[in-house]
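Memo to structure team: turn this sequence into structure tokens by end of day. - J.P.
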Amino acid sequence: MISQEFIDLQRRQLDPDRFSREYELQFTEDHGRWLSQELITACVDHSIVEPWHFEDSFEDLDFCAGLDVGQQNDNAALSIIELQGEARFLRYSYLFPLGTPYDVLTAHLKVITDRWHIRRTLVDATNERALAETMTAQIDGVEGIAFTQPWKQKAAGFLKQLMSKKQFRYYFDPEVVAGLAIEQFEVLAGKPKAEGEGEVSKEQGELEGNIRFYHAPGTHDDRFWSICLAVAASIEVEPEPFFAVIPR
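Reply from structure team:
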């Protein structure tokens, strides 16, 4: 049984939302989260007992991956999905410790790419273009992606679209659930309206694509973006923006 002292320690160390999810078995209200609690819980597949492992090897399966790069201030995160028809299954999601050297990231990705025969991997090259170029040269199927705001919206929108159709499935893991729930968004002011047209509503802002993503201070969204990169890698054509509002 978990002691009360341990629970009190976790309450002090974790942000309030995550503590509520993991120790009080509840979500806080969505409050502008990109993925609602209903959407996240609906996509948990209880038939998937656990993630697959770094040491595994596979033949004749279709894998795509996403690597969100970080080192000192943010963790690097690697997520791998398997494609089965229209469905994507999260098979692996690993958060590297802070300060992990880039040569270790490169070696980790190369080894698992060779063992799993990963077809395509998108790597965040926003601030680390040289690292992405090194990985592209050394590892099959790697492509660097600049994390522009429009690209983020397309990738996050594609993930949301898959989840709304229950075409993105994953094993139950509090870390994965917390990672998906972490991302928040706000609708930015669009182009000025003509006189008499009124204010821009939240729904209209989503339709026009004026969205900024962010996460709360003291939290990290590296796993979320690695998953977005992986699902974006799974399509041959760059995803079109997805602006439909998912009911909560």
